[in-house]
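By convention, each integer encodes one residue's backbone shape. The lines below illustrate.
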Amino acid sequence: MLVRKFSWQLILVGVAGFTLGLLFTSLPSSHRTRGIDVSFREAYMDAQRLAGVRGVKISSLGFGIRARTLIFKDKSFAMVLPLNSTAVTAWDIHNLIMDTGRLHDKETNFAVDVFSRFCGKHGPQLVLDVGSNVGYYSLLAVAFGCKVMTFDGNLETLDYLKMSLAMNGFSDHVKVVEALVSNVTNVQFDGWNVKSNSGASASPGYVTTRSVKLDDVVREPVLYAKIDVEGWEPAVFASARKLFQREPPLYLFFEMTYYLEKWKHEYLEVFMMLTAAGYKCESSVLQKIFDMPTTKEAFDAMLKGYSFACDPTKINFCQDEFSCVLSSAS
């Protein structure tokens, strides 16, 4: 296997007809002396597979990637991202990372605070990234010294993550699970949205996709779990009932897409589960730690409180994100 070292200032990588330029800024000496082994062969194989999905060669104009270095405190890593022209889902998120070097401040700061205090030090070291997309949080966790289980049913976005892992020498620290997380085994997926498939043939644009339960695959204490799956969160939590009863993650970040009527009271079940486990959660939209609803009436009242921020009759979706801390966490 061809292995080379990253230059900390400027790296120009040529791989079979396409060039990936990575511009690195100066890093703290403690990080600079550590060094990172770069496996070009692994990255090349991931790029070949990704190009094959698109029906092009990696030397074609139809295949393109971009990358930048992300820096958090004294840690840094290179992240590979799709070009907008490749029409990969969540292009707005990819543009935000490319333009600013980070995702949304509140959720990023929450993760960085947890990772910087605990990763590579003491206590649980496992991070769950459910709905990883191109792996922003997976890479961030490994950069600080944690190990990760990352889950996504979109194999195309996972190939970008695999390239990033190979480029940084992180591959041994991340278990990539090419599956959706769900309490049901027969699900349909269009690369972005998930729905149950009750034995029927796949809907147009959807394919039946492998799924796993967190209760079946998580075997050790969890430091941090991120669950962001565009309205499928209740099914993820339902797949982890034993985990949240036995030894819940110390820290949790999850999203609620609260205009989807079919999920409305399934999110109530999520809040009831988290209340029973002993979490305190802060709402990004409401900007406060709130009493999680445990009755239908309380949940309906909570949803009405979002009217100032979102009118689901006028826009396509309304969401809130929650940063949660277990009562036993330090």
Remarks:
- The radius of gyration is 20 Å.
- Residues 1-40, 198-206 have pLDDT under 50 and may be disordered.
